[in-house]
Every structure is written in C-alpha cells, then in structure tokens.
C-alpha cells in the first residue's frame, strides 16, 4: 500500500529507467502501483500517453471497477483489466509493470503454439533466477505465454489465470510482458531479470546455430 505521491515518484523513476533501455517504444507499456487493498485502488498510467517521458499528470487513480476516482481526469490504460486481475489474485503485490521489448516479443513468438493457444519458456540453474526469488540449488521456472486477445477483458482473465505467485511475470504472444512484485523496486528487479534472461537465451541460441 503506497500513498499517491510516493506511487507517482516510483512510477516516474521506473518509466525513465525502462525508457532508457528502449522498453517503452511508441507509447506502449503501462505501469501501476497499488494504493489500497480493500477496496482496490491503484495509480496507473493514462492510456496513450508517451511513457518514455511520463509526467505526474499522466498518472491517474482508478478503483476495482476501473472507474477513474474523483480528483483525477483522463482515460486509464486500455489494459487496466490486467492490472485489476493480478492485484485481486495476489493481495501482496504492489506494483505491475508492462513493457514491449524486442527480446520478450521474440521469445513469445518462439515458444508459443498458435494451434494450442498456449506456451511457456523455461529457465533452469541460472544465477539471475535469484533475482526472481529462486535461491534453491537447482532452480527452474516456467514463464507462461498467453494469446494476445483483442478483447481486453479476456486478456485480463488470461494473464490472471496463467500467473503464478512464485514466477512474477506473464508473457503475451507478440505483445510484451507483465511483471509484478511486492513493491515497485521488486517489480523492477523482476522485470530486469526477465529481460536479461530473454536476451541471454536468444543470443545463446543464435550463437549455437551460427
Ligand atoms: C501503442 S501500442 C501498445 C498498446 O496497444 C498497449 O499494448 C499498451 O501497452 C499501451 O496501452 P495504454 O492504453 O497506453 O496503456
Ligand atoms: Zn501493451
């Protein structure tokens, strides 16, 4: 649970850091911080704004029905349903970060079966799994990949159903990743670890096949 001013400060800092890495191209991405648990409210980015130069006025507050709360104006992220679903499923998470990157898109393509409408990518025994909370000796994780439904209610349901609490991210086919954590710092750490693993995996496979 975070006060609005602190949520804004974290979101601006995270957006700046992600933008420097090229993870928020062409106004893509949406970011949120939970303000309250019961009833749910969150600070979330405005739909369509350029998150690469996110400003305080681009962050608005919505409730669990995705209604903008009084005192705030504008249209919340088109993908607010995904944020609502994840916050409701995992009461202890406080931040959700959605970005579109080249490597998360490449792997969402490589490990998704269009005919089956599902997929996952596995990582095992890699040091950076510790940044995702997996300190065990022979750690392994599966990151789920869901279809990129045009119906955003359905997308929200698909991401929420596929999400595990101990693997803090879900890929969306040819779209991007939703990463989450118990604080803004944890969500960013998870996002950076996922993106490191994706790039590493892609480059390793490229090197092996050349
Ligand atoms: C501009 S393409 C990306 C959008 O379609 C969407 O996937 C996205 O990430 C941003 O949507 P937004 O409504 O601004 O939160
Ligand atoms: Zn998106």
What do you see in this structure?
- By secondary structure, the chain is an alpha+beta fold.
- It has a single domain (4-209), classed as L-fuculose-1-phosphate Aldolase, CATH 3.40.225.10.
- The chain is built from 5 helices and 9 strands; from the N terminus they run αβββαβαβββαββα.
- It has a 9-stranded mixed sheet, with helices on both faces.
- β8 and β9 (176-181) form a beta hairpin.
- It is globular.
- The termini are far apart.
- Zinc ion binds next to loops.
- One of its GO terms (biological process) is L-methionine salvage from methylthioadenosine.
- Belongs to the aldolase class II family. MtnB subfamily.
- Catalyzes the dehydration of methylthioribulose-1-phosphate (MTRu-1-P) into 2,3-diketo-5-methylthiopentyl-1-phosphate (DK-MTP-1-P).
Summing up helix and strand content along with how strands pair, one would put the structural category as alpha+beta
Strand order of the largest sheet: 3-2-1-4-9-8-7-6-5
CATH superfamily: Class II aldolase/adducin N-terminal domain
Strand content: 15-25%
The total of beta strands comes to 9
CATH topology: L-fuculose-1-phosphate Aldolase
Shape type: globular
How many domains make up the coordinates?
Answer: 1
Alpha plus pi helix count:
5
